Amino acid sequence: MARCALSGLLLSSCGYLALALNDCQDGTCSAHFIQMQSSALKQTHPWPHARGSPPRQFGTTPEVWTSHKLSWSFHDPAGKYHNIFAGGPVIDQDKNLFQMSAKGVYAFNSSGHNLWHYDPPGISNNEVSLYGDLVLGSTKTGNAFAVNRKTGEEVWVTNLAKDAGGDCGYPGASEGVFVVGAEMGHDPASDGGNVNVFGVDAKTGEKLWEYGVDKPVWNLTPLFPGDGSTVFMDFAGGMYKLNLKTGAEVWKTLPETSRASFSDGGATLGPNGLVYTCSNFGENRGSEGTTGMVRAFRLDNGTQAWYKMTTMPCNSYPAVGHIHGVSPLAVVVTPGSFMGQENLHGQVLALNANTGEQLWRHDMKPYSGLFGMAAGDTEGSFTRQLEGIQQICLPAHWSAPMIDGDGMVIAGRSDGNMYKVFGPTESFKGTQSQNMTVDSGTISEKIPLGSAFLHGALAAAPGIFAISSCDTLFVFQK
Ligand SMILES: *[C@@H]1O[C@H](CO)[C@@H](O)[C@H](O)[C@H]1NC(C)=O
Ligand SMILES: *[C@@H]1O[C@H](CO)[C@@H](O)[C@H](O)[C@H]1NC(C)=O
Ligand SMILES: *[C@@H]1O[C@H](CO)[C@@H](O)[C@H](O)[C@H]1NC(C)=O
């Protein structure tokens, strides 16, 4: 037992503590422990994917922000509007950061030195992910690719379909299988996204399976609960669980009331056997004045555990974890409307992960961007046109939120600010300063970073918090 406890502690830095301790309780500790340790060693990247490290894709990090300061940033050498970034960085076990952009993949060490650059087989709007020594990605030309994370050398390229949507996806790998979307959708609700999800052998690039979805997947973000499956959401809030090795459907749950809706949000795992989604209701498509929907589904059989309507559209991904000053496990979402007009409302909302009841909310000052666009989009559009790249980033209202080790919520907003929401004012221990706001009993701080953010903007690793706007990567270090 003592050995188990010690092992648990050793493993905790990789996030495997809870699993190791559970295994100890059934009396077969050592056998399970050895297995656990080898699988933990294989995948030790702190932030290999936009929602975290499988099977803990909770949008949560054990790192505590407190003393991190901006240490370096990177944008195109010609000026920030000369490129456009896809999502945010991923971070490997050596604290190197990898950022996809309209001009290819950039790899940096933790002091900001550019290690290598890779030109993918086609323009990509998709954040890359890490798996072992590979950087995996996909392009608008329907290709998936793998690159060696240390050298930037191409390992394989596989064509999956004639094209792929221009949305910003977060493909990812686990248990040897890279899950990625391709073949652009043409649904009446929205043109784009992908109608097929593929399983590809991460080592060889061989296509293993292909699965046709009921409605297109938008910003496909596969989750890996660690039971040999992958789970993901379509743009109408429909949930799918597939066998990771074969692509066989384990279950699918398509909430009837929302099949005509559109959201570019998605799903996030919880540590409690549930998976949470942020999407829209009825025929709502994420615009100002419409409602959104947060749902919890059982991972084992797909049954909906609860739902909660939000007063603003739900267009991003939840984060699930413990938030400061509140005891129940929380699911945090960032409701807010799409761009295209003035006076856009946005909030950060924390719900009880077991029941859906509200824990707290923090409403932001309504945002009015230049010509109704996200910060940086109108400003950078002409430069990008001259560069021959996508003219605007067109992010949703918010990035996906991240919960840090102290229960603080961090998210980037379309107004070009990163916000830290500390939670209830009475449990806030710091000193209030300029750019802090109290709303509905909760306190937030605004950190101006210039341009808006895509869902996968945030990443964390020991001693590092990183956030990418649509044009600049900012790295904060201790
Ligand atoms: C990053 O690379 C530069 C150039 O090789 C080097 O000077 C620096 O020490 C490296 N930083 C880290 C943290 O390895
Ligand atoms: C899923 O499991 C729960 C709890 O055992 C049960 O109440 C529910 O009916 C199950 N749903 C299906 C579709 O089997
Ligand atoms: C507070 O926000 C303003 C812009 O809204 C900015 O100029 C200033 O630098 C911010 N202060 C801090 C400490 O971030």
UniProtKB/TrEMBL annotation:
The UniProt record lists the Pyrrolo-quinoline quinone repeat domain at 104-256
Record InterPro entries:
PQQ_b-propeller_rpt (IPR018391), PQQ_rpt_dom (IPR002372), Quinoprotein_ADH-like_sf (IPR011047), WD40/YVTN_repeat-like_dom_sf (IPR015943)
The region annotated as signal peptide is 1-20
Entry keywords, A to Z:
Signal
Q: Does the keyword Transmembrane helix apply?
A: no
Q: Which domain of life is it from?
A: Eukaryota
Under the heading Pfam families, the entry gives:
PQQ_2
Q: State the protein's name.
A: Pyrrolo-quinoline quinone repeat domain-containing protein
Q: Which organism is it from?
A: Durusdinium trenchii
Q: What is the lineage of its organism?
A: Eukaryota, Sar, Alveolata, Dinophyceae, Suessiales
